[in-house]
Amino acid sequence: MNIFFDVDQTLVHIDQDSNVLRPGAHDAMQRIKAAGHNIYVWSATGEPHVRRIVAMHGLSEWVDGMFDKDPRVQPYPDFIIDDDWYLVEKYGGHCVSQYKGHAHDREFEAALQRLTDLGHL
Ligand SMILES: [Mg+2]
Description:
Structural class: alpha/beta
CATH architecture: 3-Layer(aba) Sandwich
Distance between the termini: 11 Å
Strand order of the largest sheet: 5-4-1-6-7
Bound molecules: magnesium ion
């Protein structure tokens, strides 16, 4: 499957003082890749933003492509992980809460559990 991660409030929390990767991001991507899926990262803020965040947080080894959040994106998403419920309804996937920078956040564990329940991990 083509699994798409959103950036802002999904993978990272960014404010004027910080740029924090959501806990469990490395583990989530490692497990998804190990199960044979493709990982893409996209953002409505644009591809350069995605590239910057992926490089900054050491995610490059797992990421197969980076895109602007364009509905004509290729390959087409099979499963998205996003804090925007509207987009999760549209594409299918798992909706996470908006990441606010908390160290005890476990939303990616829940996303992995969803993928496991669906038989994808
Ligand atoms: Mg978002």
